[in-house]
Amino acid sequence: MKLDLATIATLAERLENCELQAQDTTKITDDYPDMDWDDAYAIQDEVRRRKVARGARIVGLKAGLTSHAKMKQMGVSTPVFGFMADYYAVPDGGECRMSELIHPKVEPEIAFVTKAELRGPGCHIGAVLAATDFVMPGIEVIDSRYRDFKFDLKSVVADNTSAVRFVVGGQPMGVSGVDLRTVGIVLEKNGLPVAFGAGAAVLGHPAAAIAMLANHLGARGECIPAGTLILSGGITEAVSVQAGDNVTLRVQGMGSTSLRFV
Ligand code: 0L1
Ligand code: MG
After folding, report:
1. DSSP assignments along the chain, one per residue
2. What is the pLDDT of residues 136-188, one digit of tens each?
3. Is 74 a pocket residue for ligand 1 (Cβ < 6 Å)?
4. How is domain 57-261 classified at the architecture level of CATH?
5. Chain-wide mean pLDDT for the chain?
C-alpha cells in the first residue's frame, strides 16, 4: 500500500461526504497518482466502516463494469466490486429523490440471492449456480461522486463503484433449467424501450461476475455468505435519468421491477 491510514480516512470522509451531500469532486488519483489497488479498496472499506458505525446495515454486494458495453462506455477493462447499504434500497415501484443525487444513471442487472456460502479462490459458474437461491430483475442507480463521471478504476473503487440506490423485484426465479446467457432484458424509460440485451453481455454469463466477486473476496480472506443479494453488473450501457422519469426493467421469465425519479 502507498497511502497511510490517515490519508485513507481523509479520502473516505471526502468521498462519503460527497455522497451524503450530493456534491461532486475531482478524482482522488489527481492528488494521489501512486495509490494502488489495496489503497482503493481500503478507502472503500473505510467508507463502509463509517456507514456501519452510524448504524447502517450492509444489505448486498455488487459487481460493476462487467459488460463490454459498460467497459467501453467508461473506457476501462476490469470489473470492480462494491457494497450496498440499507438506505440504498428503493421499494419496488418506489421513488428516488433527485435532490439526494448528483447525476444518476440506471443500469439493468440480474440480481442473485445466495443460499450457500461462496468462497474463492477457484469459485466458478457451477459453484455459483449451485449456491444460488433465486435470481430476479434489479435496477442499479449509479451516481459517481466524480465530476462528469470522469475517473479511473482506482478512484471508482474507492468511491464504492458509484453505488447509490437500487431496486429489485419481479418474480424471483430459481436457476435450475434456466440459461441465464440467453435471458433477454428490456429497460424502459417513461414507457419507451431505451436499452436491450441478454445475460451473456455480462462476462459471457452473469454467474461469472458472482464467481469473480467470490474470488476477489477470497484473496482478501473474505467470502460471500449465504443469503447475500448481489447485483451482477449492467447488461447495457448506463442510461441517464432526470426528475420525472419512470424506469422499468423487464427480464424474460422474471417479470419486472421499476422506480421513478422525483
Ligand atoms: O455498477 C457499475 O457498473 C458502475 C461501476 C462504476 C463505474 C460507473 O460509475 O459507471
Ligand atoms: Mg451496476
Report:
1. --S-HHHHHHHHHHHHHHHHHT--B--GGGT-TT--HHHHHHHHHHHHHHHHHTT--EEEEEEES-BHHHHHHHT--S-EEEEEEGGGB--TTEEE-GGG-SS-EEEEEEEEEESS-B--SS--HHHHHHHEEEEEEEEEEE--SBGGG---HHHHHHTGGGEEEEEE-S--B--TT--TTT-EEEEEETTEEEEEEEGGGBTTSHHHHHHHHHHHHHHTT--B-TT-EEE---SS--EE--TT-EEEEEETTTEEEEEEE-
2. 999 999 999 999 988 899 999 999 999 999 999 999 999 998 999 999 999 99
3. yes
4. Alpha-Beta Complex (3.90)
5. 97
In tens, the pLDDT along 91-150 reads 999 999 999 999 999 999 999 999 999 999 999 999 999 999 999 999 999 999 999 988
User: For ligand 1, is residue 258 a contact (CB within 6 Å)?
Assistant: no
Q: Structure pTM?
A: 0.97
> Is ligand 1 within 6 A of the CB of residue 67?
no
Whether the CB of 103 sits within 6 Å of ligand 1: no
How much distance in Å is there from the Cα of 246 to the middle of ligand 1?
21
